[in-house]
């Protein structure tokens, strides 16, 4: 992975980063909508599409668009590395004064980008992140689990990660340069956007339905994404495991004292084979659960020590 691939070019005012994974139904619409809604930036705009190992004809569509418009820059990764890696590839190749991260499905409306930039400049801040007031097209289960996850990580983490936000945001070049310096490969970008600091404010908006196609995130991927976020920005699960372990041991010690005293004082024999089995199974379950938590942290450490690149680029166009 190239860390500082491109210097910030003041001639490019706005860079749009768009990760792509099997989005052949949305790419052209996304491009035309951005062109139309950001007409005022037409001569100082670059659009960076990062294809994350698509298996449909997304690659061919991107190549055709890049031939028609040299403002379109394309990065083709050698396989599917995940959205966080694709975003990082885009961040490492931007040239603009301001950088916007947006999804190809246009759930985040590009027409509010000028207002977000205006908000950033008026408030003399470094980041304006989108806060969703409505989330059209998302199920109650997804909205509820998302809310609970961000509430949980906000309580557990040592940094504040705003709720009801996604990757949609405007950042200045200082923030981008800071993000390029981060060495980790196991990434939770929403956390990293907050971790780098700088002055950040929210911008409220209504999130739309996908313009076409289906989301590439299933509940299994969302679960792994949640684990990535929690293990990246807090060690509280390890502390909880320690506290619960001590608590159970202490309770078990008190119960042992109680039964021993009962036996020696009144001669009552300890009964209950079933109780013993249930206790063993309970303790075994607790131990396995916390071994799993410990394994998550050890696994992250193991992957980081390999120092593998975050992504591998197969091809670049107009870069």
Automatic annotation (TrEMBL):
<protein>
    <submittedName>
        <fullName>Glycosyltransferase</fullName>
    </submittedName>
</protein>
<comment type="similarity">
    <text>Belongs to the glycosyltransferase 2 family. GtrB subfamily.</text>
</comment>
<keyword id="KW-0472">Membrane</keyword>
<dbReference type="Pfam" id="PF00535">
    <property type="entry name" value="Glycos_transf_2"/>
</dbReference>
<feature type="domain" description="Glycosyltransferase 2-like">
    <location>
        <begin position="15"/>
        <end position="176"/>
    </location>
</feature>
<dbReference type="GO" id="GO:0016757">
    <property type="term" value="F:glycosyltransferase activity"/>
</dbReference>
<feature type="transmembrane region" description="Helical">
    <location>
        <begin position="240"/>
        <end position="261"/>
    </location>
</feature>
<keyword id="KW-0812">Transmembrane</keyword>
<keyword id="KW-1133">Transmembrane helix</keyword>
<keyword id="KW-1003">Cell membrane</keyword>
<dbReference type="InterPro" id="IPR029044">
    <property type="entry name" value="Nucleotide-diphossugar_trans"/>
</dbReference>
<dbReference type="GO" id="GO:0005886">
    <property type="term" value="C:plasma membrane"/>
</dbReference>
<dbReference type="InterPro" id="IPR050256">
    <property type="entry name" value="Glycosyltransferase_2"/>
</dbReference>
<dbReference type="InterPro" id="IPR001173">
    <property type="entry name" value="Glyco_trans_2-like"/>
</dbReference>
<keyword id="KW-0328">Glycosyltransferase</keyword>
<keyword id="KW-0808">Transferase</keyword>
<feature type="transmembrane region" description="Helical">
    <location>
        <begin position="273"/>
        <end position="294"/>
    </location>
</feature>
């Amino acid at each position: 992975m190239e860390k500082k691939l491109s210097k910030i070019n003041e001639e490019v005012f706005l860079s749009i980063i768009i990760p792509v994974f099997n989005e052949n139904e949305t790419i052209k619409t996304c491009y035309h909508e951005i062109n139309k809604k950001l007409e005022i930036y037409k001569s100082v705009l670059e659009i960076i599409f990062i294809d994350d190992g698509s298996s449909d004809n997304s690659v061919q569509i991107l190549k055709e668009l890049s031939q028609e418009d040299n403002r379109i820059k394309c990065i083709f990764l050698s396989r599917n590395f995940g959205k966080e890696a694709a975003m990082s590839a885009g961040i490492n190749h931007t040239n603009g004064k301001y950088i916007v991260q947006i999804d190809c499905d246009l759930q985040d409306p590009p027409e509010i980008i000028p207002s977000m930039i205006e908000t950033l400049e008026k408030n003399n801040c470094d980041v304006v992140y989108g806060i969703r007031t409505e989330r059209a097209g998302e199920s109650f289960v997804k909205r509820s689990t998302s809310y609970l996850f961000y509430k949980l990580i906000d309580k557990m983490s040592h940094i504040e990660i705003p709720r009801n936000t996604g990757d949609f945001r405007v950042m200045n070049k200082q923030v981008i340069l800071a993000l390029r310096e981060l060495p980790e490969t196991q990434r939770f970008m929403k956390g990293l956007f907050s971790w780098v600091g700088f002055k950040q404010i929210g911008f409220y908006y209504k999130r739309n339905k996908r313009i076409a196609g289906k989301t590439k995130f299933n509940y299994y991927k969302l679960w792994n994404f949640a684990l990535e976020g929690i293990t990246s920005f807090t060690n509280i699960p390890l502390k909880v495991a320690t506290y619960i372990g001590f608590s159970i041991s202490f309770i078990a010690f008190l119960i042992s004292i109680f039964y021993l005293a009962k036996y020696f004082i009144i001669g009552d024999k300890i009964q209950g084979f079933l109780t013993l089995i249930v206790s063993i199974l309970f303790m075994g379950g607790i131990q396995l659960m916390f071994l799993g938590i410990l394994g998550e942290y050890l696994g992250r450490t193991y992957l980081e020590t390999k120092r593998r690149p975050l992504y591998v680029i197969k091809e670049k166009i107009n870069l």
